[in-house]
Amino acid sequence: MPWVEPEPGPSPEQKPKLTKQDSATGSEWYQKSEESESEGNQPPLEPLASPRPPETPGPPALERDDAPLPEGDDASPRPSVLDDAPLPEEETPEPRAICRHRHRCHTDCLEAPLSRAFQWLGWQVGAHPWIFLLAPLMLTAALGTGFLYLPEEEEEDLEKQYTPVGGPAKAERRFVQGHFTTNDSYRFSASRRSTEANFASLLVVSYSDSLLDPATFAEVSKLDGAVQDLRVARENGSQIQYQQVCARYRALCVRPNPLLYAWQVDKTLNLSSISFPIYNHGGHPLYLTGFFGGRILGGSLGMGHLLLRAKAMRLLYYLKTEDPEDSVQSKQWLTHFLEQFTNITNTLALKKIEVVHFTSLSRQLEFQATSMTVIPVFHLAYVLIILFAVTSCFRFDCIRNKMCVAAFGVISAFLAVVSGFGLLLHIGVPFVIIVANSPFLILGVGVDDMFIMISAWHKTSLADDIPERMSNVYSKVAVSITITTITNILAFYTGVMSSFRQQMFLPQPKRK
What we know:
single chain; five-stranded antiparallel beta sheet; elongated
């Protein structure tokens, strides 16, 4: 059979596209050339060689070897022509569609430089391990000296710690203080106070139905005398007495209970004829509201009603608060009062009354005591997290076992805590008890990158050297570590930007 010369291939500007058209007689293949990029014309469609009619079977003829082959990446392949039998329709090879080259959108503009930077860092770590081992230890030792400025006994002000700095309530309080002044050294008035004053409160409860009898008042009077006789010994040898720190109205200390003071002055006072809430004693009205509980009132008497029975009585010892030096002495006296209160009640051997106490320092001391009781629980939590981090990296294969690596990961988180706290103490950020649980959070978010790096290390080839494996690990975990670090920074920065004082940078405290 004579050889059919193939059609010349299209120019490089014209890239063919094969389409199929259906007709009534059958399927025919057409070659369609797309419009040239340089010319606006479109070449006409030229039919390819139609299939040969069937012939009698016979030995197939061989193809010519000396025929020229089409050149170029866009040239159509030369069809294989048979002598006797046509190619079955179901076995007709599908034409190859040749598409233009398209520019892809690169989305690794951030991942690629990060991977290269981490790969370089990993190579340096693998090539110079001692530098990256000793440098963090020396930096932690230098920054850890900031713990020398950690105050041992610094007062924790609950209002400063748990209230916003620029809250509207504080602005309104400043307005009230500017228009309703107070003077607790000469004219103290509890109703004019816009802030909580230093005080000690005793709640006396009678074992009987009422404490309005001379015997019960005698025990209450002994208790009052024992409290006012307390003295605090200072380091310089001086003493702080109650009369020095008590809030005063003119020349006298504010009485803890007006009716008790009236009975102490006049022991013949008839306690069964007391009017409530105002009792007129010698031409001076005594306001008893808030000083007696469990009351039973009778008929009208004077400016109120007859006080038949009272189950409880309160004694309020107001102390100086406005002057900073007086406030410090008042708190020292309150601390001594709390330490000696149990001894006072045991010494007096009270038989008719039961006494409980509360002071302006009680809430703060309870917060500190609660923090001390929670510390052992935090220690247990630290141990459990460390054990989990170490044992989760255990493998029975001694080559793949990474328990030591996990232990160093936990140590790295501990070094970060010491370095961070030391740096903040160096620049003058005060330490408050509420941030004592932050090492627990730092340990939780600090070991997650360790697991990512260990997982990437297991996927490296054992035949590579250490710098090569480290560079591969760092390049693979670059994006993961970057994302987790950024999210952690944003989360903690949200807390830093809040208006609570314990999370803000304050002026540098005085250092001894």
